């Protein structure tokens, strides 16, 4: 571990819908009460499931991953200089876009008041209601001047592939404000979580996140998002990363064969990814031993792609170190410090 | 800037022009419905003339994802006699089987596979008819060719009956499903198919493609054919995940599955991911009793085409080694546009033993021909 690292994915737990009420307009408090809406918890992370919370991070009582826990489990032990909070809550599940916009805004307010104001090492992602890209842009504009918000957060499984042009205003706003777009594992459950229908098991659902990232990468590249927004950075979060080389080999091969269909894609997908896309470290879905890992690092083709993440409090690694076995020291430094700072313009002041 | 993709000038592995080839993915095509008449009962002929065949997509003619070439075929694969590409055995022999020294060719009729037809009676009748057609017009005329049992896969009981009918018929080498089904293929509703496959001692091939109703990505419908082609690899990862996590191979220990035209470079990463999550989540599904990567290695094979192309060609060797030299079977995808030429498709030289296994030996073992 390199002291002073930047953790690009931790998950504070929002204790419940009630904790957003101080930040919701009266209208929505009343409506939610009338409707009997007490919770909005996604199937992505059932609170009791092993992946959702590492056993030794489970508190004896009360919600996990509160500020005190974050400090003692995730910030202090690894001497983390800054950590990006990605709040996972079911706002993306909603179909009512006005309700989604109100709850997303309240989540951002809650984040600013109850975490960022209290702990200078924390940063956060802006939660946006992607049910309506216009409302999502409004939410980005609302927080753009607060430098503690360092990226825009989307889910990898939404209503439409993320490269589709209806979403481009969101990318225009993100690019304008120097905010990378973070795409996190998870589904709005508006489409089956595999291209061949709904799976039977939670574990299967989680494995399938990696496939969703592969198709989103294809959508962003082939639709021409990075040609249109040359300043845009995309970070794939909790995506796994060992699927990336094979995916790029395929994306590039078919681009060679079918590029007349997408003539605006003017360079190879592998090169586009090296310029515009980053991935967080955990979960490390890698080979079982350091020798095979060494060969795998060559396949990645670049030491600039990965950003350190613990994925706290999800159970992705055992023991004290979130780094994979046999990670060369120089690469560890890139992953923990240099790459995050190069990716997030708003983190530059953290090290200056 | 518009980067020009330079023609690949890498040294090509010369397979030796007379090396025996097993091609595990050849696509024969019926030339017309009229041509199929003799293999269908009159009521289904009338039905097709009147209503066509309803599927889980909207196009009765044309395509919502227009392909890179007409019918996704090689432009030189149209026989001079006016038949469709893949529609004339003599031309296939002259263009592909003879010059490439194909000693074993597996026929995969997917244009289109009748299992995706919604009308249950029609799906079953078309499957049976096309199975008869493969024997009458292909395998009986060329001993190098073996057919695949087409089944109405969305009705597993009818599918099992069709498998039972073909069991023991040496014209058939395997059972053919498509990857995009109504539900993930590992789910229990499909188990009668696997039970029948084991009974008939036939492996199950899952060919990429099809329309099962779910969008092509878990985030909805993409815009382009190129995305559909990318999506086949990710869809087949979901299919394989389903087979393994549902415990299909625990239930049917003799079952062997081959993924066709899915790509294969993603296999090691998926195996690592499955293993990692199995450690955490095994209590959710006690049916799966062993490490997923072990189950995968024991029960699953892959065809090579379309082969991923790393920037550093040698990386493909790492992947092949991780998958296992006995688990990859060569395929050309003739007559489709992304055809792999056996003399030119490998970006790196292989040893004589590796070549013999990949191009021929693995297929002979997989189809139990030794």
Structural class of chain B: alpha/beta
Mean pLDDT of chain A: 96
CATH class of chain B: Alpha Beta
What profile does the largest beta sheet of chain A have?
8 strands, parallel
Any idea how many domains of chain A? 1
Which CATH architecture of chain A?
Alpha-Beta Barrel
The shape of chain A, in one word, is globular
The largest sheet of chain B is:
8 strands, parallel
What is the CATH topology descriptor of chain A?
A: TIM Barrel
Short characterization:
Chain A has 13 helices and eight strands. Chain A is an alpha/beta fold and 352 residues long.
Descriptive labels:
heterodimer; A: 352 residues; TIM Barrel; 8 strands; 12% strand; globular; B: 370 residues; alpha/beta; eight-stranded parallel β-sheet; 11% strand
Please tell me about this protein's structure.
The complex is a heterodimer of chains A (352) and B (370). In chain A, 38% of the residues lie in helices and 12% in strands. By secondary structure, chain A is an alpha/beta fold. Chain A has one domain: TIM Barrel, CATH 3.20.20. The longest helix of chain A has 20 residues, at 97-116. With 370 residues, chain B is an alpha/beta fold. Chain B has one domain (21-366): TIM Barrel, CATH 3.20.20. In chain B, 37% of the residues lie in helices and 11% in strands. The radius of gyration of chain B is 20 Å and the shape is globular. At the A-B interface, helix 6, helix 7, helix 9 and helix 11 of A face helix 7, helix 9 and helix 11 of B.
Write the layout of secondary structure elements.
The complex is a heterodimer of chains A (352) and B (370).
Chain A: E1 6-10, H1 26-34, H2 67-75, E2 82-85, H3 97-116, E3 122-127, H4 133-143, E4 149-157, H5 168-176, E5 181-187, H6 202-207, H7 209-222, H8 225-228, E6 234-237, H9 244-258, H10 269-276, E7 277-280, H11 290-300, E8 306-307, H12 329-343, H13 348-351
Parallel strand pairs in A: 1-2, 2-3, 3-4, 4-5, 5-6, 6-7, 7-8
Helix pairs in contact in A: 3-4, 4-5
Chain B: E1 21-26, H1 33-36, H2 42-51, H3 89-97, E2 102-107, H4 120-139, E3 145-150, H5 156-166, E4 172-178, H6 191-199, E5 204-207, H7 225-245, H8 248-251, E6 257-260, H9 267-281, H10 292-299, E7 300-303, H11 314-323, E8 328-329, H12 352-366
Parallel strand pairs in B: 1-2, 2-3, 3-4, 4-5, 5-6, 6-7, 7-8
Helix pairs in contact in B: 5-6
